[in-house]
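Checklist before submission:
- one chain only
- standard amino acids only
- sequence pasted in full

Submission:
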Amino acid sequence: MNPAVRVSPRSAAVLGVASFGGLMMLCWPLLLRAGTGERVDPPFLFLVLLPVVIAVVLAELNEGGLDPRVLAILGVLSAAGAILRGVSPGTAGVELTFFLLVLGGRVFGPGFGFVLGCTTLFASALMTAGVGPWLPYQMLCAAWVGMGAGLLPRRLTGRAEIAVLAAYAVAASYLFGIFMNLSGWPFIAGIAVEGHEGSLSYVPGAPVLDNLHAFLVYTLLTSTGSWDTVRAITTAVAIVVLGPAILAALRRGARRATVTGVVRGG
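Returned file contents:
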């Protein structure tokens, strides 16, 4: 089945550059060279550039025009994802939005998955008053979740497909938590976790491996073993239980939305 949002070579290049730029915006603290004890302010320029980067990618993917039927499906899935996130706003790590991003990206392709991640998180932020400096990072990371699902091997079917999607959902859930932690960890001062001696705060000018170790321990103790694990479990279970039926429904909609024909003169 052809993807609903076609990704031309130029669009793929823009998507790759934007993703690399977004990754650098998340990982910059580990790469920053600063004097020991020197104050590091939040990169407000990144907060301005990141929405611009996302807008450029969306405009590039839309260059060929979105079929109204595909646009309608995007709107329905974005609204459904926003509602699911509203009724399960990450409480104890339970988030029902991610399985829909995975299934949507799987059926409609990586370009659609990228757009779906952006629009779903943006719509849910408006519904739940969750607009803030973290939103561009959430949109980008969710876009990666949808895009990654669209890049999985297309030949998989049946139980093998569900198994791979569930495994991908687990990995994506953990990576989403890691990246979102990385977006805010450098600006949390005096981090101390019960059961761990010493501070886990970001230290400007410290060796990369030292900061990386502190961050990984911080993530493991505060997020990975709790929020991220619950997110991974709930997303994988939702895919196993609801995935076959939703995939069938989405594929029926995709066939109707991407039907093409040739008009011949009489």
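Reviewer check: The chain is about 70% helix and 0% strand.
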